[in-house]
Automatic annotation (TrEMBL):
It comes from Sphingomonas aracearum. The lineage of its organism: Bacteria, Pseudomonadati, Pseudomonadota, Alphaproteobacteria, Sphingomonadales. PROSITE patterns: HTH_TETR_2. Residues 30-90 form the HTH tetR-type domain. InterPro entries: Homeodomain-like_sf, HTH-type_TetR-like_transc_reg, HTH_TetR. Keywords: DNA-binding, Transcription, Transcription regulation. This is TetR/AcrR family transcriptional regulator. Residues 53-72 bind DNA. Pfam families: TetR_N (PF00440). Residues 1-10 have a biased composition (Basic and acidic residues).
Length: 223
């Protein structure tokens, strides 16, 4: 891909849900939907998947159960909407961070920190709760993997495109590095929930960035 070409994963802008026209019922409905999604994220983060009932979500959002069922007929419908919202917002946030970093080696190194910035947020913990909860929810387990496949495909393609900017063509190695780092950061995000000394988590992340520098050096020597 030419150095100056726009990137799907970093330089481009993902399509966000269009705001309904006008100021009437459609916009009120969209606002209610967003309140429910944000309330679900809050509940998932504070109390976990098992305790995030539709009743708890409606109470947190200040929305009647009937209004909630109008937006999301089933709990799975709501949880899938939450997951889609989170991955879309995380994608936007990472793009914004990385667009401010010069292309080349500096941007390649910055990808890890950009992902970690979003991984530490409550929404990421909510998404992890959904990932784990989907294992025991047949309806959710049938629909949730498609959401994550799309999210992880974007997470994998970004480093590959940036690596090609600096002349690295070892796509399989870059993909393996991305998967390893993503798994490590998910683990560190969970660790932050139980670790009273967050400095230890920060130290572990610094080690992860050191490994990436060593990986970058090895690729440079092999090119």
């Amino acid at each position: 891909m030419p150095h100056g070409a726009d990137r799907l994963t970093i330089e481009g802008e993902p399509a966000a849900p269009a705001l309904p026209p006008g100021n009437g019922h459609a916009q009120r409905s969209a606002a209610t939907r967003l309140r429910l999604i944000e309330a679900a994220i809050d509940c998932l983060y504070r109390t976990g998947y098992g305790a995030t009932t539709t009743v708890a979500i409606a109470q947190t959002a200040g929305v009647s159960r009937g209004a909630m069922l109008h937006q999301f007929p089933t709990r799975a419908d709501l949880i899938i909407a939450v997951a889609e919202h989170i991955v879309r917002e995380q994608d936007l946030r990472r793009r914004q961070i990385l667009r401010a970093v010069p292309r080349g080696v500096e941007r390649f190194r910055a990808i890890t920190a950009a992902v970690w910035d979003t991984m530490k947020e409550p929404a990421s913990m909510a998404l992890l709760e959904i990932m784990l909860g989907s294992r025991s929810d047949p309806e959710l387990s049938a629909r949730f993997p498609a959401v994550m496949r799309g999210a992880e495909a974007r997470l994998a393609s970004g480093p590959i495109e940036v690596a090609r900017d600096i002349g690295f063509e070892q796509d399989d190695l870059i993909h393996a590095m991305s998967r390893l780092h993503l798994a490590a950061m998910r683990g560190l995000a969970i660790e932050r929930l139980f670790q009273t000394d967050e400095g230890r988590v920060d130290d572990a992340f610094e080690l992860l960035t050191w490994y990436k520098d060593q990986f970058l050096l090895r690729l440079s020597e092999a090119t």
